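Lab notebook: predicted structure, single chain.

Context: the supervisor wants predicted structures on file for every construct in the current expression panel, including those that have not yet been purified. This is the next one on the list. No modifications to the sequence; it matches the entry in the shared construct table.
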Amino acid sequence: MTEFNPYEAPAARIEPEVFGSGPYPAGRAQRLLAVIFDTMLNLAAASPIWLPRGWHTTGTLTNPLALVKLFSETGFSETDGIGIGLLLGLWGYQGYRYANTGQTLGKKWVGIRVVRPDGRKVGPLRLLGLREGFACFLRIIPVVGSLLYTMDALSIFRSNRRTIHDEIADTIVIQS
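Prediction complete. Output recorded below exactly as produced.
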């Protein structure tokens, strides 16, 4: 018979987090790192647009309406054409990769990809239209869009690690 020790630290059996029998979800840090890598690629491609104007213009690069406003206020130069060409080329390549493999370059570098909850490949319309289109649409809405986009990003801290745009598109991000 074991004796009860009132001064002993409580013991708890720690079980690993279980997500069912499907693919194992990507970690929050992995997803953040992938977004940072993809953002750095976008900034590099758009550098001919923002370098001559200064850092304060980098926020307009993710909002097409703000980019049009920027060009109407500051004019359009040859370097802007180069930047737009680089951005369109990068977005085309990223979109092609994303639609075919479920990975952007950032996701590939950190070892994650987007799939359906049962592990199947995600179709391009669901991936680019619902999943990414939703987030892009939120960025365009003045004031409220920033709040909604922040809520979408913070929803990753739920226990299932899925954001709102994951739920809308019925996708999950897994370790590949």
